[in-house]
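Quick question: what would this complex look like in 3D?
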Amino acid sequence: MTGFLQQVIEGLGAGAIYASLALALVLIYQFTGIVNFAQGELAMFSTYIAWQFTAAGLPFWLALALALAVSFAGGMLIERVVIRPVEGAPELTVVIVTVGLFIFVNAAAGWIWTFLIKDFPNPFPGGALEAGGLSVGYSTLGVLAVVGVVMGLLYLLFQHTKIGLGMRAVAANPASARLVGIRVGWMLALGWGLAATVGAVSGTLVAPLLFLEPNMMGGVLIYAFAAATLGGFDSPGGAVAGGLIVGVAETLAGAYVGFIGSDLKVGVPLVIILFVLLLRPQGLFGRAVVERA
Amino acid sequence: MSERTNERGAFANAGSEPPGEDRTREPAKAADTPPRAGTPSRGRVLAPALARVTPGRRGWIAVAALLAVACYLPFQLVPFRVFQFTMVMVYAVALLGLNLLVGHAGQISLGHGAFFAVGAYTTAIMLDRWDLPHLATLPIAAAVAFALGLAFGLPAVRLRGLYLALVTLAIAIFLVPLLKRFESVTGGSMGLTLAKPAPPAWTGLAEDQWLYFLTLAVAVLAFLLAYGLLRSRVGRALHAVRDNEAAAEVMGVRLPFYKTLAFAWSAMFAGAAGCAYTWVIGFVSPDSFVVTLSITMLAGIVIGGLGSFSGPLLGGLFVMFVPSISQDVNDAAPGVIFGLLIIVVMYVAPTGLAGLAGRVTRSTKNILRKE
Amino acid sequence: MSAEGFLTISDLNAGYGDARVLHGVNLSVGRGEICAILGPNGAGKTTLMRALSGMVWVRGSIGFDGADLARRSPDTIARRGVAHVPEGRGTFMPLTVEENLRLGAFTRRGRGTVEADLERIYTYFPVLKTRLRQVAGSLSGGEQQMLAIGRALMSRPRLLLLDEPSLGLAPLVTRELFRIVRTVNEQERTTVVVVEQNAHLALGIAQQAHVLESGRIVLSGTADRILQDEKVVQSYLGYRV
């Protein structure tokens, strides 16, 4: 039993990371109705920026804050420059553009920082909290806390600020939002900026666990897709819950289903995506969407 | 490579001839155009230039000329170049399938490389275990990929475009560890090394030339098959699916059936290409089929020209030569070029996506929606 | 026709993409007036409203209190004091009733006046006050229309555009809505342009009316005169939604 709980805790730690990237995906989906395939790569790029700041000698948290700020501005810029021209274009076109962005950002990071792996500092102390035979790594606790804080800040932003209300209005009904005087274009850019920032948090959480390299987010992205699909692409809370569930499911499957082991764990998100899409396409917490023809 | 440049021109000309079969399509309906203040007719409508499905009469002459040059080519180039052009044709066959799915049926796949790998591994295993003759592996590899495509296509057809992209991406990512796992059959991470088909003595060809002609034959076969498919009722049904799913359904097109079929065919072409790949390379390993391959293929067909007849060949040239030329500059250069080109192509010349302009986005819908 | 010309539309063409819907529309509305736009389905009434708030392409000029609104974006026009209650009401379905109302005041600053305006809206539409925390999508059609008008009033508009407010509503509810629109107009001197299928109702509260057909104005006059016009009576008044 203790072993099982231990696995669940590990799973939650991994799940929190998936949740953060899923949150970024959901933020953009809500505003634009598109899934940003480049989200993971943007997160990776942000992480490199943070790394660059630490390499320049800045303390970790300052480097992180700067990287988040750059990511926010970068996200807005990308929306204005890259996504704006295809706003209103067919879904397929937009998806392909984000795939193009994926390839470009991945390669650009490789060009700037090479494809060699880099060590990324872990902001959390090593060691673990021991209680009742369970051991919870401080870094796991740290990851969970960070995701919790991000979640809380987003909640405050959306539920208790005017700009958050405006953003929700744009997500709900962009045409009507324009009619009440909201500058929808800027709200969309803001959504991309926020998503890039949340993604950057996710990247800096992943990097210490793996290594920093241009392809590090590829695997995480598929888990984040599973998390967002499971939670519902239009539900930020659902994305977080989905991320935690995916993390736990993956860890348990790896530990207890002999056939899966550690190498086939990446099949778990695939199975989850397929099952959700076939059984409950709107996800656990999502609203049923009217099929857009 | 000056020879190639000429042919590329020839193919481009072929593409711009009037299509053999007239596929007139209505311009996007007025109500579907997102209303944008102050822009009378400019706007989001993707250039309504109709994608050419098949070459016209003069196009066929160009195709014949191209074939003649293609037959002459391997006698003029050094073996390495011959190998490169062989690979161009391998990719072109795979892209033919992707074009069918993305360009003609309007469904997006980020996992085309997985079916390519299925074809490659099916061939490799047949050669490795049962020592089948090379030619016998082609129909089997294509059939296995087709069957798998059908199996995945069945759930996939219930998915909206976006989700199909997710699922296919997940498949592509999952495939690599799966191949590594079944080591006894697939050779695991080490892969399998196989004999390449040997040129029969009567031909007097070197190995690279023989492989080239074998692949050329596969490519010609594949192009003819795709041409036939698109000319048939089925081709029209696919376009109906792409241009407007709802309308297609109303018109009596059995949507799930054709979407599944499009997926399976696309997989079949990928499988056939994978088979040719194994012949040519003589080696398969999981790391040759990572997700990047799938994404590169999508890039290739988008840049080559979605929905166009010459798109797969142009795409094959891109996939082969952009990396080999630009890698000297920087390892990341091919990615930078592909990424930029995809975005630019989607902005300025989304050929083949033209019909998709009929599908409007949420924002437009909300403006026009009557509750 | 009023001389002030608070809203003066001249030679207005508008449409979607390649399709032109309005052909050289001229009309003028005086400050504080209610103006009704009548006409058959597909005449371009809704397009006219969308042209006024920048949702479609426009050629010609839309003079509004000394400024030209033509070719401005919808959000800019909204900031100039034009509130558009679109066909279909434009409700923010997943948001609460109160949030919908507050969005109406999105472009305004000053918390105090917003709270006062909320109270003012509740006096017009008491039912909304009982549903503040409810999700707007759960309201009935009539309540949603009230919410939409309430949202528009929250911006303290100088010009209120109502597009088919009676659509899909019971006659009793519609009558109540029109009574409130008239009250608002009288108490706050808000200029109103209303597009309506139900010509009787619209002419009942309007001073001026224009009949639109195939994108052109075919008849203009005071509400009373239009009401007496045989052609209009036959074409539109006989036909009740």
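Answer marked as accepted. Chain B has one domain: 2-12+52-355.
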